[in-house]
Amino acid sequence: MSTGELAGLGQRLAAVGDDAWQALAKAELAAGDVRRAVGFDAGIDVDRLLADRSAQVDTLLADAYRRDFGATAGLALFATGGFGRGELFPHSDVDILLLCEGDICSERQASIERFLTRLWDASLAPGHAVRSTAQCLEEGRKDATVATALSELRFICGDPAPAQQLSRAVRSEGFWSPQDFFKAKRAEQRARHARYNDTAYNLEPNLKEGPGGLRDLHTLAWMAQRIYGVREIAELKPLGAIGGDEFIAFERERRALSHLRYGLHLVSGRREERLLFDFQRPLSERLGFKDEHADNLAVEQLMQGYFRSVAVVLRLNARLLQRFEESLTGEPAIEPLDEDFAAGGGYLRLLDETAFCSEPLKILALFRVWAANPSLKGLHSSTARALGEALPRVDDDFRARPEVRAAFMRLLRGPQPVATLSRMWQLGVLARYLPPFGNVSGRMQYDLFHVYTVDQHTLMVLRNIESFSEPESKQRFALAHELWPRLRKPELLLLGALFHDIAKGRGGDHSSLGAEDALTFCREHGLSTADADLVAWLVRQHLSMSITAQRQDISDPEVIARFAGVVGERERLDYLYLLTVADIAGTSPKLWNAWKDRLLADLHGATRFALRRGLENRVYADERIAETRAAALERLLEAGIDAAEIERVWAGFPPEGFLRYSPEQIAWQTRGIAQRGATGDHEPLVLARPHSRSGALEIFVYSPDRDGLFAVAAATLDRLGLSIAEARIVTSTNGYSLDTFQVLDAGMEFVSPERRAATVAASLREALADIGAEVSPPNRIVPRQLRHFRIPVQIEFSADPAQGRTRLTLVCTDRPGLLARAAAVLREHGVRLHDARIATFGERVEDFFQISDEQDRPITDPDRLEPLRAALIDALSDTMDKDTPHVGQRAHA
Question: Which of 491, 582, 833, 862 is the most buried if burial means most Cβ atoms within 10 Å?
């Protein structure tokens, strides 16, 4: 309202008697609210509307005060709270303070009650307090909330003398010291955030009190008043306490949130601060949002704007709180970390604050240094401000630089990659570096299934993946902790998670669109064709495992066969399982449960079995072989092994060996063979070393391949008290074994792992030197735990035309010495072993062998296979097992 309009309102009020005043005041206020609502819909600035309502209510209050108190000395009327700031929303309380000195409160008690009744009758709904100056100061010194309210007092009318006295006392440092006030308001903010689970990303957020809401901006303003003695945030700019861009962001988001809050009051028709589902659609319509398509509803656009605003507020809040604290405690000493960065007070800071703008590559260097120094508490506020100002430099030209792309990939492959991505998201860098991710920042889905925005959900998925390396994850995910160390390149799983929902909101199949984005990104960032296709495949198929497990009958072999056909190979299965469980668990805290955990673990187990028994089709095998060779060669050359010697050793390595073993394993094996030299090739070479898994050893056997070699090795390891958890049997092209065993060893509890490995290698080398000697496996007691898990022994024979062999499949319950017993039976029956894939999954053994007769011919005669089956069942069953029918009674030639 203009000054003239306010004067006219005052004249109209003054012209009526008390009986008509309430009706007139009520009508004037209602008319003003209608006029402001029309103005809101027409796009009038929200600050003008808030000030307009405050000014109208001021006029009403002043006239009511005149009627009931006149010119009473020692009495004054103040606006407090949001009303004191001149921010009166359509249904906000009208908070007032009647300041009474001396005996006025008791003497004018009847007038005070009449005044308040008058306001209620006019629908002003006052929140009131009646205090003396002394009472205000006494309560304010005890309670920071009261002190805050007193700092926002705005004089309306009455005696100015007590008003001035109270104002001076409240501004004095003796009322609240800046240090104590800062600590109290920060603790208050933390407690308030905790009530909302410390997240702004709630489906029905509180615009005023929630993290990143208006109250956070108010808190910063209150702190600034007390610490710097300013009235407005803008006054911090010349003091260097807030940057120009920061102030612009502060005001922009304050107006954006105020605009939403004003509209929420209008559509709810009450003092409502929660953006409930009931009001989200009406509010989006009132604000002019339109449905674009089914994947980008008007309400989702509204909420995306809100979530983006609160993200900026939280960023500003953290930055300014740190700056305020430093102004109170002083700048700490700094300790250089490298030529560009230093630590000060536990915070990472840029030594030259112009460096980000002059060389934006240092933006990524910031996150590298941060990840390398995990003790850092966070980013220094001046560096955060410099980073924010440099964000526009993260543009198309920056993203296209090869050294920038290489630096980003080093972050994913380096320490703390998930924490790094979270920091990049929080500071606005990830949205700039990866624009499609910026498009889904703050994007919600209008349902109760997805409780997080797309970007927040993606971060939850990444954090779930990060947890897989922790033993505690076994309590939540049945297989994740076991599969995580097997991943060839964990960063590929992180990329799959980063892109899996990146195309939401565009319309169309977000899985296919996201896969295209992922493929482009991976190719631009130098990933091999195999790795790029794996990431794109993960994004495209990220829902397939969940759909198969929850909507189809996974006990049906046809379902498993179809899914195995989609997966194609064990590596992709492991990656997809890990992404699937992380995705489901990151969608809603209530969505993941033990039933889904078991369902997906069962699907993984059934598919793994189907792949291992013959459905596996390795993709990009040649490229992976070349990659493994190159990585192993680099390691060997660095270790001083001659290139010609490496080629001599590798001349006998079959291509399958480079697929089955990692570059590190290949280098270890090659180094051992090369260091022994060609002259000792007729003697068995045994290498043993501690495994990365505690209490385990890895053993490599390189020896002229002879009948019974595997049986002797298995029996010897068993006699040494070693339990074979996994074995890979590979035969070289020049007739040598390239066998590895992963064994668990209770004996390592008493000696050093290195000493135990040397003892095992010596014993096994001695046994293999005399392979003709009889080495029978010992009888060992089945552990108590395994007696409760019984899987009937399953033996199946099938033809393997591609290899010209017979495939033997063995499934049963694990037990001590099982592999040694099976190998002994094969040896006794004159069966030659050419290849083996040995693995144990919990209590379940899944072993696959390629066998032949002694003339290297496939075994097809049932008269020979059936006795072999019976002997294996007899050797691998204990007393209780033998009472149970066994699976696989017919051989398949």
Answer: 582
Q: What residue has token string 């009450």?
A: 270
Please name the residue that has the structure tokens 């892109």.
499
How many CB atoms are closer than 10 A to CB 71? 9
Question: Which residues partner with 742 through β-bridges?
Answer: 698, 726
Question: Which of residues 147 and 553 earns the better pLDDT score?
Answer: 147
Interacting residues of 33 by C-beta distance below 8 A, sequence separation 6+: 53, 90
**CB–CB of 719/759 below 8 Å?**
no
C-beta neighbour count of 660 within 10 angstroms: 18
- What span, in angstroms and rounded, lies between the C-alpha atoms of 266 and 274? 13
Buried-state track 435-470, b at ≥16 Cβ within 10 A, e below 16: ebbbbbbbbbbbeeebbbbbbbbbbbbbbbbbbbee
Q: At 158, which helix (H) or strand (E)?
A: strand 154-158
Look at residue 394 in the predicted model and tell me its pLDDT. 96
Going from the C-alpha of 697 to that of each of 356, 453, 471, 799, 818, the distances in angstroms are 48, 45, 20, 34, 18
**pLDDT tens, 605-614?**
989 988 887 7
Residue 200: name the closest of 275, 289, 258, 263 by CA.
275
* pLDDT (mean) for 787-798: 80
Instruction: HSE, CB side, 13 Å, CA atoms: give it for residue 529.
Output: 7
pLDDT tens digits, residue range 262-276? Answer: 999 999 999 999 999
CA distance 169 to 171: 6
DSSP 734-768: TSEEEEEEEEEEGGGGTS-HHHHHHHHHHHHHHHH
Record the pTM. Answer: 0.77
Q: Of 487, 526, 534, which Cα lies nearest the Cα of 407?
A: 526
Paired tokens of 732: 């070289």
Enumerate residues 6+ apart whose C-beta is below 8 A from 263.
Answer: 40, 283, 286, 287
Long-range CB pairs of 195-200 (<8 Å, 24+ gap) are 199/456, 200/307, 200/310, 200/311, 200/314
Please state, in angstroms and rounded to a whole number, the distance separating the CA atoms of residues 97 and 76: 8
Position 883 scores a pLDDT of: 43
**719: confidence class by pLDDT, cuts 50, 70, 90:** confident
**Token code pair at residue 568:** 């194609």
Strands 722-729 and 696-704 come out as unpaired
- Residues 56, 61, 66, CA angle at the centre, nearest 5°? 130
